[in-house]
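Fold this complex.
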Amino acid sequence: DTAVSQTPKYLVTQMGNDKSIKCEQNLGHDTMYWYKQDSKKFLKIMFSYNNKELIINETVPNRFSPKSPDKAHLNLHINSLELGDSAVYFCASSQHPGGEGYKNTEAFFGQGTRLTVV
Amino acid sequence: AQTVTQSQPEMSVQEAETVTLSCTYDTSESDYYLFWYKQPPSRQMILVIRQEAYKQQNATENRFSVNFQKAAKSFSLKISDSQLGDAAMYFCAYMAGTASKLTFGTGTRLQVTL
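Structure:
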Protein backbone atom coordinates (compact mmCIF):
# COMPACT_ATOMS: atom_id res chain seq x y z
CA ASP A 1 0.00 0.00 0.00
CA THR A 2 1.34 3.39 -1.00
CA ALA A 3 1.57 5.71 2.00
CA VAL A 4 1.60 9.02 0.12
CA SER A 5 0.45 8.94 -3.47
CA GLN A 6 0.34 11.80 -5.90
CA THR A 7 -0.94 11.96 -9.45
CA PRO A 8 0.11 12.38 -12.12
CA LYS A 9 3.79 11.36 -12.04
CA TYR A 10 4.52 13.34 -15.17
CA LEU A 11 2.79 16.39 -16.57
CA VAL A 12 3.72 18.19 -19.76
CA THR A 13 1.69 21.24 -20.62
CA GLN A 14 1.82 24.51 -22.49
CA MET A 15 2.37 27.93 -21.04
CA GLY A 16 -0.81 29.59 -19.91
CA ASN A 17 -2.64 26.37 -19.12
CA ASP A 18 -4.16 25.47 -15.74
CA LYS A 19 -3.29 22.14 -14.16
CA SER A 20 -3.82 20.24 -10.92
CA ILE A 21 -1.78 17.71 -8.97
CA LYS A 22 -3.55 15.48 -6.49
CA CYS A 23 -2.16 13.98 -3.29
CA GLU A 24 -3.54 11.47 -0.84
CA GLN A 25 -2.04 9.92 2.29
CA ASN A 26 -3.25 6.88 4.18
CA LEU A 27 -0.99 7.27 7.21
CA GLY A 28 -3.49 9.09 9.39
CA HIS A 29 -1.20 12.13 9.59
CA ASP A 30 -2.60 15.53 10.42
CA THR A 31 -0.15 17.65 8.42
CA MET A 32 0.44 17.71 4.68
CA TYR A 33 2.88 19.65 2.56
CA TRP A 34 3.83 20.68 -0.93
CA TYR A 35 7.53 21.01 -1.71
CA LYS A 36 9.12 22.17 -4.95
CA GLN A 37 12.41 20.74 -6.22
CA ASP A 38 14.04 22.89 -8.88
CA SER A 39 16.43 21.91 -11.64
CA LYS A 40 19.38 22.16 -9.24
CA LYS A 41 17.68 19.67 -6.91
CA PHE A 42 16.99 22.29 -4.25
CA LEU A 43 13.92 21.44 -2.17
CA LYS A 44 11.80 24.20 -0.73
CA ILE A 45 8.53 24.22 1.18
CA MET A 46 5.59 25.80 -0.61
CA PHE A 47 2.61 25.10 1.62
CA SER A 48 1.81 23.30 4.83
CA TYR A 49 -1.66 22.29 6.01
CA ASN A 50 -2.59 21.05 9.46
CA ASN A 51 -6.03 19.51 9.86
CA LYS A 52 -7.16 21.11 6.59
CA GLU A 53 -5.99 24.56 7.65
CA LEU A 54 -3.23 26.45 5.85
CA ILE A 55 -0.40 27.14 8.27
CA ILE A 56 2.53 27.89 5.98
CA ASN A 57 2.55 29.76 2.68
CA GLU A 58 6.12 30.46 1.69
CA THR A 59 5.73 33.45 -0.63
CA VAL A 60 4.34 31.35 -3.40
CA PRO A 61 2.68 33.23 -6.31
CA ASN A 62 -1.10 33.47 -6.19
CA ARG A 63 -1.26 31.29 -9.27
CA PHE A 64 -0.63 28.36 -6.94
CA SER A 65 -3.68 27.42 -4.89
CA PRO A 66 -3.65 24.43 -2.57
CA LYS A 67 -6.87 22.84 -1.43
CA SER A 68 -7.37 20.36 1.37
CA PRO A 69 -10.84 18.82 1.30
CA ASP A 70 -9.96 16.63 4.28
CA LYS A 71 -6.94 15.60 6.36
CA ALA A 72 -5.97 12.86 3.94
CA HIS A 73 -5.92 14.96 0.77
CA LEU A 74 -4.00 18.01 -0.39
CA ASN A 75 -4.29 19.08 -4.00
CA LEU A 76 -2.33 21.74 -5.82
CA HIS A 77 -3.87 23.80 -8.58
CA ILE A 78 -1.70 26.00 -10.76
CA ASN A 79 -3.15 28.70 -12.98
CA SER A 80 -1.54 30.32 -16.01
CA LEU A 81 1.51 28.07 -16.00
CA GLU A 82 4.87 29.67 -16.75
CA LEU A 83 8.14 28.18 -17.98
CA GLY A 84 9.66 28.79 -14.54
CA ASP A 85 7.10 26.52 -12.94
CA SER A 86 8.85 23.53 -14.47
CA ALA A 87 10.06 21.46 -11.52
CA VAL A 88 9.34 18.35 -9.51
CA TYR A 89 6.56 18.86 -6.98
CA PHE A 90 6.47 16.65 -3.92
CA CYS A 91 3.58 16.05 -1.62
CA ALA A 92 4.43 14.89 1.90
CA SER A 93 2.73 14.19 5.19
CA SER A 94 3.72 13.95 8.81
CA GLN A 95 2.33 14.12 12.29
CA HIS A 96 2.59 17.63 13.72
CA PRO A 97 5.28 17.76 16.40
CA GLY A 98 3.38 20.19 18.57
CA GLY A 99 1.66 19.02 21.71
CA GLU A 100 2.81 16.94 24.59
CA GLY A 101 6.08 15.09 24.30
CA TYR A 102 7.91 14.13 21.21
CA LYS A 103 6.30 12.27 18.38
CA ASN A 104 7.48 10.72 15.19
CA THR A 105 7.76 13.77 13.01
CA GLU A 106 9.48 12.53 9.90
CA ALA A 107 7.81 13.47 6.66
CA PHE A 108 6.80 10.76 4.22
CA PHE A 109 7.00 11.84 0.62
CA GLY A 110 5.06 10.97 -2.48
CA GLN A 111 6.94 9.93 -5.59
CA GLY A 112 6.88 13.44 -7.02
CA THR A 113 5.27 14.97 -10.08
CA ARG A 114 7.60 16.19 -12.79
CA LEU A 115 5.95 19.21 -14.33
CA THR A 116 7.30 20.44 -17.65
CA VAL A 117 5.93 23.66 -19.09
CA VAL A 118 6.66 24.17 -22.78
CA ALA B 1 15.85 31.96 9.92
CA GLN B 2 17.06 28.43 10.00
CA THR B 3 19.59 27.39 7.39
CA VAL B 4 21.12 24.06 6.50
CA THR B 5 24.47 23.84 4.73
CA GLN B 6 25.92 20.87 2.92
CA SER B 7 29.37 21.86 1.75
CA GLN B 8 30.09 18.79 -0.36
CA PRO B 9 28.22 18.89 -3.69
CA GLU B 10 29.66 15.51 -4.66
CA MET B 11 31.37 12.64 -2.90
CA SER B 12 32.71 9.33 -4.10
CA VAL B 13 33.35 6.12 -2.18
CA GLN B 14 34.49 2.65 -3.14
CA GLU B 15 32.22 -0.25 -2.48
CA ALA B 16 32.63 -1.64 1.06
CA GLU B 17 34.39 1.52 2.24
CA THR B 18 33.11 4.18 4.64
CA VAL B 19 32.11 7.70 3.72
CA THR B 20 30.99 10.70 5.78
CA LEU B 21 28.67 13.39 4.48
CA SER B 22 28.78 16.76 6.23
CA CYS B 23 25.93 18.98 7.32
CA THR B 24 25.82 22.09 9.46
CA TYR B 25 22.80 24.09 10.46
CA ASP B 26 21.98 27.35 12.07
CA THR B 27 19.15 27.81 14.55
CA SER B 28 18.28 29.63 17.74
CA GLU B 29 15.80 26.92 18.74
CA SER B 30 16.58 24.40 21.47
CA ASP B 31 13.93 21.91 20.40
CA TYR B 32 14.33 20.53 16.88
CA TYR B 33 14.78 17.47 14.72
CA LEU B 34 17.38 16.60 12.12
CA PHE B 35 17.03 14.17 9.26
CA TRP B 36 18.95 12.65 6.40
CA TYR B 37 16.94 11.82 3.30
CA LYS B 38 18.14 9.81 0.33
CA GLN B 39 16.94 10.50 -3.20
CA PRO B 40 17.95 7.82 -5.73
CA PRO B 41 17.46 8.32 -9.48
CA SER B 42 13.86 7.17 -9.04
CA ARG B 43 13.44 10.59 -7.27
CA GLN B 44 11.63 9.04 -4.33
CA MET B 45 12.57 10.76 -1.06
CA ILE B 46 13.51 8.10 1.48
CA LEU B 47 14.17 8.78 5.15
CA VAL B 48 17.56 7.39 6.15
CA ILE B 49 17.89 8.47 9.75
CA ARG B 50 16.50 10.97 12.26
CA GLN B 51 17.87 12.64 15.38
CA GLU B 52 16.04 14.52 18.10
CA ALA B 53 18.06 17.44 19.42
CA TYR B 54 17.39 16.58 23.05
CA LYS B 55 19.00 13.15 22.66
CA GLN B 56 22.74 13.09 23.26
CA GLN B 57 23.13 9.62 21.83
CA ASN B 58 23.86 9.51 18.12
CA ALA B 59 21.22 7.77 16.02
CA THR B 60 22.11 4.56 14.20
CA GLU B 61 20.25 2.59 11.54
CA ASN B 62 22.16 -0.47 10.37
CA ARG B 63 25.05 0.81 8.22
CA PHE B 64 24.02 4.45 8.70
CA SER B 65 24.99 6.49 11.73
CA VAL B 66 25.23 10.16 12.57
CA ASN B 67 27.68 12.31 14.46
CA PHE B 68 25.50 14.92 16.13
CA GLN B 69 27.45 17.78 17.66
CA LYS B 70 24.82 20.09 19.10
CA ALA B 71 27.14 22.84 20.27
CA ALA B 72 28.86 22.96 16.90
CA LYS B 73 25.51 22.59 15.09
CA SER B 74 26.88 19.77 13.04
CA PHE B 75 25.07 16.64 11.87
CA SER B 76 27.17 14.37 9.68
CA LEU B 77 26.09 11.06 8.17
CA LYS B 78 28.43 8.07 8.11
CA ILE B 79 27.75 5.24 5.71
CA SER B 80 29.69 2.08 6.47
CA ASP B 81 30.30 -0.81 4.09
CA SER B 82 29.02 1.25 1.17
CA GLN B 83 26.94 -0.55 -1.41
CA LEU B 84 26.14 0.29 -5.02
CA GLY B 85 22.56 0.93 -3.98
CA ASP B 86 23.71 3.75 -1.72
CA ALA B 87 24.44 5.90 -4.78
CA ALA B 88 21.99 8.80 -4.58
CA MET B 89 21.51 12.43 -3.58
CA TYR B 90 21.57 12.84 0.17
CA PHE B 91 19.75 15.73 1.79
CA CYS B 92 20.21 16.96 5.31
CA ALA B 93 17.04 18.52 6.74
CA TYR B 94 16.03 20.44 9.83
CA MET B 95 12.68 20.96 11.50
CA ALA B 96 12.04 23.14 14.54
CA GLY B 97 10.17 21.45 17.34
CA THR B 98 6.81 23.07 16.76
CA ALA B 99 7.22 23.97 13.12
CA SER B 100 5.50 22.39 10.19
CA LYS B 101 8.16 22.44 7.57
CA LEU B 102 11.50 20.89 6.70
CA THR B 103 14.41 23.10 5.71
CA PHE B 104 16.72 21.23 3.38
CA GLY B 105 20.38 21.57 2.53
CA THR B 106 21.46 21.69 -1.10
CA GLY B 107 22.29 18.01 -1.19
CA THR B 108 25.36 15.83 -1.72
CA ARG B 109 25.53 13.50 -4.67
CA LEU B 110 27.17 10.24 -3.60
CA GLN B 111 28.80 7.98 -6.16
CA VAL B 112 29.74 4.42 -5.25
CA THR B 113 32.44 2.83 -7.36
CA LEU B 114 33.58 -0.77 -7.71
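The two ends of chain A are 34 Å apart (CA to CA).
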